[in-house]
């Protein structure tokens, strides 16, 4: 079955999305940035509300990976009970690489982390191996600037295909996101990432900071579930 992730910013949205059956509900506050964090207590309540009926993820916020706050943020979000903690990797400096590797003990303690790299920030796919080395469970491609230009405005299908193959060979879960539209779905499903992620396309007027639009959610759900291409699980 093709798999999809839907982002929720509060308990009401989480509850609504749960009924639509995404594979992962991702908690974030879009008004606080591309991977804006929700308060850990809100995430904890949302995870309890989901009660294991689908997988969950949450972000630690828009820290640069060099920040000393990263480990603390990961621990706080992991303690909420989410399945995956998402960490934005905005830069690929040596300092960022060192910080990434410093998260290895958390992975060894069972924290499942997903690294997010950005298609519009000159992504370096050699980082996939570093992410693996740090013990992360997966990697996601997203866009950092939400200006209406989606993932496919920044990377071609062959480039995305290469990203997914490298991630798969490293035995990492792979996800694609970045203002994905309903028209992108058939093209992206054919690449067989583990899941496609959505926020903007689920919202009124395609604005990720607005309310969820039930018609839009239904359209995305159908486009994912009714498309015959099978995403590898
Ligand atoms: O994790 C996925 C993101 O929430 C995607 O958000 P977006 O569709 O607004 O780029």
Summarize the structure in words.
By secondary structure, the chain is an alpha/beta fold. It has a single domain (4-225), classed as Aldolase class I (TIM Barrel), CATH 3.20.20.70. The protein has ten helices and eight strands. It has an eight-stranded parallel β-barrel, surrounded by five helices. α1 (11-20) runs parallel beside α2 (40-50). The protein is globular and about 45 Å long. Glyceraldehyde-3-phosphate (G3H) binds next to β1 and β8. The site of glyceraldehyde-3-phosphate has 16 residues, from β1 and β8.
How would you sum up this structure in a few lines?
This protein is an alpha/beta fold. It contains 10 helices and 8 strands. Helix 1 (about 10-20) runs parallel beside helix 2.
Strand order of the largest sheet: 1-2-3-4-5-6-7-8
Average pLDDT? 93
Measured by DSSP, the beta-strand proportion falls in 15-25%
Oligomer: single chain
Which CATH top level class fits? Alpha Beta
Could you list the spans in which at least 5 consecutive residues all have pLDDT below 50? none
Give the distinct bound molecules: glyceraldehyde-3-phosphate
Question: Features of this protein?
Answer:
233 residues, 8-stranded parallel β-barrel, 16% strand, globular, binds glyceraldehyde-3-phosphate, (5-formylfuran-3-yl)methyl phosphate synthase, EC 4.2.3.153, schiff base
């Amino acid at each position: 079955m093709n798999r999809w992730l839907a982002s929720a910013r509060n308990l009401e949205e989480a509850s609504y999305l749960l009924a639509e059956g995404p594979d992962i509900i991702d908690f974030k506050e879009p008004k606080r940035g591309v991977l804006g964090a929700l308060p850990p207590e809100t995430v904890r309540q949302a995870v309890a509300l989901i009660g294991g009926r689908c997988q969950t993820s949450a972000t630690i916020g828009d820290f640069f990976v060099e920040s000393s706050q990263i480990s603390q943020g990961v621990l706080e979000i992991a303690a909420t009970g989410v399945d995956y903690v998402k960490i934005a990797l905005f830069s690929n400096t040596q300092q960022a690489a060192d910080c990434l590797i410093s998260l290895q003990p958390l992975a060894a303690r069972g924290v499942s982390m997903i690294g997010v790299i950005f298609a519009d920030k000159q992504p370096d796919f050699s980082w996939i191996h570093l992410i693996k080395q740090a013990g992360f469970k997966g990697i996601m491609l997203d866009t950092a600037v939400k200006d209406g230009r989606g993932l496919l405005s920044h990377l071609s299908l062959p480039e995305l295909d290469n990203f997914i193959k490298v991630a798969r060979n490293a035995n990492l879960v792979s996800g694609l996101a970045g203002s994905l539209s309903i028209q992108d779905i058939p093209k992206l499903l054919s690449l067989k990432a583990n899941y496609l992620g959505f926020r903007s396309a689920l919202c009124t007027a395609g604005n990720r900071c607005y309310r969820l639009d039930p018609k839009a959610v239904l359209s995305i759900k159908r486009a994912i579930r009714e498309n015959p291409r099978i995403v590898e699980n």
